[in-house]
Write a structure and sequence with these properties.
Blueprint: H1 2-19, H2 35-44, E1 51-53, E2 69-71, E3 73-75, H3 81-89, H4 121-131, E4 135-137
Parallel strand pairs: 1-2, 3-4
Length: 150
């Protein structure tokens, strides 16, 4: 019993300690964005040269078929505001084996152009506000196992 209480106390301390600290995102919040202005940002930075969004046409003459990464669509995981912000400012944070090799540089980093020094925070907020509704959450289909009672 002592061992169980000690384990519970230790786990509680670890979980409490994970919330704070100087690198914690706790308390971080950006202002609300504007969807229409986000569409303008998408065009301004020529995002559709390497990305495509269902229902949105790419401008003529701006196309890079080797780097055609889909934004939006159906997903079993919620694309949070924070996920999208991070994807714009740090596109290499979540490269997986499922991505085509064409979007990954030799060093294992994303080929996405770093726009952190030119895009304003307002533009970032508007872009993410524009992108988020293009993701559709589909429920995860779990396997229905039969119950075997004893």
């Amino acid at each position: 019993m002592k061992y169980l209480l000690l384990c519970i106390a230790l786990i509680s301390l670890i979980l409490i300690g994970c919330e704070g600290g100087p690198d914690s995102p706790l308390g971080f919040s950006l202002p609300e964005g504007n969807v229409k202005k986000g569409a303008v940002v998408l065009t301004k930075y020529q995002c559709l040269a390497c990305h495509h969004i269902n229902g949105i046409e790419q401008a003529t003459g701006i196309n890079n078929p080797d780097l055609n990464v889909r934004l939006g669509g159906k997903s079993t995981k919620v694309k949070t505001y924070a996920d999208l912000v991070t994807s714009v400012i740090n596109p290499s944070h979540k490269l997986t084996q499922g991505y085509p090799l064409a979007i990954i540089a030799v060093e294992g980093e994303s080929k996405m152009k770093n726009i952190n020094d030119v895009m304003t925070i307002t533009e970032l907020v508007n872009l993410v506000t524009f992108l988020q509704p293009h993701y559709e959450l589909i429920p995860y289909r779990s396997t229905n196992y039969q119950f075997y009672g004893y």
